[in-house]
Amino acid sequence: MFETARRPLVHSVASLGKLRMQGAWRIEMLHGSPRNRLYWITRGQGRVTVNCVTRGYGPNTAVFVPARVPMALELAAQTQGLELALPNDRSLDLPDQPFHLRVSNIESQAALTSHIEKIETEIAARAPAMDRALTAYSLLVSAWMSRELLRQEGQTGRERNHRLAELFAERMEATFRSGRPIADYARELQVTPTHLSRVCRDAAGRPAHALLSERVMHEARRLLRDTDLPAREVAEQLGFSSAAYFTRAFSSATGQTPGAFRKPRLRA
What we know:
Helix content is about 50%, strand content about 15%.
């Protein structure tokens, strides 16, 4: 039986150039997503941060970021590639850990590009049985990931000294709206705030408090641009003790008041 209802799509394909045009901050600042994301970078170089660990990327790099894992991707003007967002669906058997792979095999490069382009075509066509087709192509992407991980087994290991940064990232993503200080995170992880910040600086190039602030400020930007919530309610949702404190923190981070940052959306 053909599908007749038009449900919101949980798959999406976007060029990195299009993401940059929507506001570089949306992808270049630490943020999370309820969907799994695969970044297929075909041109350019830069850095990508996943779970508070930063690594460089170059052409033909695949970066997989599971749902609700904080990440940030530098997008230089010459960077080209695609973002594939996939539903958080266990039946797809997607990896439960992020990965970062340089894909040198030409056949593998072509296969991944083909799978993503077919998903993009299905989304654009919205033809009958689209849901089944998207699931089928998503399973092909999942199979591609499994095969490439096996092909490059031993090249995707995580550095032991970065594990603390990853654990901090997991807790940060779960509770960054609470207004908790870094000392609370350090206490949970059974280390001192100084040690936690030292490890984060080594893994991501900035201390723990800077990573937490970046995650909070990304969410503040998102709420201001994508919702009609008053700044006072945005402050409350992000754990600030007062709207005035939120305004000072936001202005210090962005150079704009919350109201000034929101204006471009209101004029659109």
